[in-house]
Amino acid sequence: MTPVIELAGVSKAFGPVKVLTGVDFALYPGEVHALMGENGAGKSTMIRIASGDHRADEGEIRLDGEARRFRGPREAQEEGIAVVHQELLLFPSLSVAENIFLGHQPKTRRGFVDWGRMRREARELLDRLDCPQLDVDQRVAKLSVADRQRVEIARALSRKARVLIMDEPTAALAEADVQRLLDVIRRLREDGVAIVYVSHRMNEIFAIADRITVLRDGTSTGTYPVSEVTESSLVSMMVGRDIHQLFPKIEVERGKTRLEVRNLSRTGLVEDISFDLHAGEILGIAGLVGSGRTELAQTIFGVTPATSGEIKVDGSPRKIASVRDAIANGIAYVPEDRGLHGLVRPQPLRENVTMAILDRMTKFSVIDTGREQRMAKEAIDRFAIRARDARQRVGQLSGGNQQKVVLAKWLATDPKVLILDEPTRGIDIGAKTEIHRLMGELARKGIAILMISSELPEVLGMSDRILVMKEGRLSAVIDRKDATPDKVGAAMMRTRPEPAAAGAVR
Amino acid sequence: MAAVTRILIRHETILGILFVIALFVMAAQSDRFFTTANLLNQARLMTEVGLIAIPMTFVIITGGIDLSVGSIMGLCAILVGVFWQNVGLPLSAAIGLSLVAGTLAGFANGIIITRFRVPPLIATLATLALYRGLAEGISQARSVRGYPDWFAQLGQGEIAGIPTQLWLFALVAIAGIFILRATTFGRTTYAIGNNEAAAEFSGLPVERTKLLIYTASGFISALAAIVFVSRVSTTRSDMGNGIELEVITAVVLGGTSIFGGRGMVIGTLIGLCLMQILQNGLSLSGVRGDGTTVVIGAILIVAVLISNILGRFAND
User: Fold this and answer.
1) Which pick of A61, A155, A215, A325 has the fewest CB atoms within 10 Å?
2) What number is the average pLDDT over the span B261-279?
3) Any transmembrane segments, and where (chain B) (predicted)?
């Protein structure tokens, strides 16, 4: 049998960054092919190349055995390749039927939209997806996430899709909806549709996939039938390298308790979190996207103040109802999204560096710009920020240097507890190592560090202990000496968290 | 600040050049234009718009807008007359109460915008109608006249050869320049306009700052109403009708970005002067009022276009 679509030796680079190197991938009709890999391993880029969004630098794409070049996503769609994106790309104020047939509505002979046929065909497609209760005239805005996803799949089928690429389709679904989705996928498979299934959830992969391809750092570690792999072999294929060598971990004596979190909850975001954080300790938080890691950090930092529970800093209970409270109590937060929450990019470096301590920079509420300038200069020297001068706009700096500015800004508050949310996301290796080195230095000075990261090697390499989160709760706490990729990975993806684990935190 | 300042200075340079050209052209058109008496009189006429333009610069830098300033002005003008003539309070008390009312009107705008998260455009569009309606309801279409001489000093008199209200305007403008440039309040204003979420994540008092700015806008609008009443010695409920558009034009012409984050009080002052001499000069040389409006519209578009093009060069 010839594969319906095949990537052969595909490479892709964005500027100097190589995202994919010589990847082979073959998809046969009537199979569910799982695509796995860490964040940044190259999954999205691969999907985009297959669906005509990006063009490969090297290698070729074969459709039914013949080499093809897509000039754009439209051509790929015409060949029957459809993508169901993670963030569903529907038009909320249009009806279900309109969304399904957007761009290729059935027309009457006089060129008007044939509403009757459109509604009828939409109905047939939805029945095929086993959702007879879904009204084709309903506005999409009123549908649940699961129903929207069905509309998106129906839209793909309406274009006679032979290849259906699903990018983390279950990320936002409840368990019952996941089962229904898997049923739909099985039915499509029987109809001969070839399905690429991207997911982090092990149980789904084993429930639905026929074959599995694992990507790591832009290369394929191979394609295996599902019968030949186990959960732990998949995790180590995804993570791969010997982690402890990569990270310059400094051994620091664990000091007194800096931060105590007890039964912390924020309705709908995090539930019943308890842990201690000590001076000189780096506590890693692992978990899938959406597991409540960032939400936990922002609850401690007062962005979304806790609805119940207690936070103690240096042994005494503190009320943290706002960011100002958090800063006043020595808590600093380097956010996940630098551009959105970390920096005011159009403003100069020096104004960003002092932004969190502006109150302390004044005489009668007039800003001491001389002191500000000196502080910014010191920050540039201390963190080796590559900037023209302290007046350069932060938006003009590279990602790594911007991140150093955010770090400088928060270290200026003289924090006792430093929360780092994805501290090295989207920055180059050099800057990454510098930030890791800096973290060690800060720990040695007695700062307690809470580090959130999606990169398992980073969590394993930098942390003294690891909190694993799942669905807004703590699912496990693992000591450095016991931490293996398999163990952490398993705790991240476990279907049911073990209730005993949360108790063993202290 | 280097890059940003450079653009602004350039925008102001352009504006300054336009201003000088306009001065020469107008002077050549009419020999009544370039006289001390005429220029001082023009300064007197632009004071009300100018006063309101100072807090409006802050409002627009935060990325907001305040459309209700003209209505607040009308409401406060009416209140002065009603408190003084109908209620029988001393005029100074009437003025004080009217200032309080304007401040409260601005405060209400601020509360609607910060607490209830209504977009400023919608919130102040609603209060534009609301405050104007109140003014008309209170006035019952009657005007109040016969203000005492000492009150007329503010709008018609002079101190040291300069119109009285111009001193007041200078005071407000200098305060505006100082607060925006030198204080944490000004810094917070820019940060809100450039990235409100990041300002919030930095622990800056975002809500309080916005609330204060809209409140100040109400207060200054009331102050402008007092100056206006004093200048024309009468109160009517349609006072300040449409003044918000003149104010916003001056601010935007002065280089403040309507998207927020960028702008300076100095720019607003130049924009204001440019508008005023165009109006005056054109009408002196016999151009009708609607012709003047066309010219001001054209100047606005040209100035903003040039600044956009320069801005694109400065952004890498």
Assistant:
1) A325
2) 91
3) 51-84, 91-112, 166-184, 211-229, 250-279, 291-311
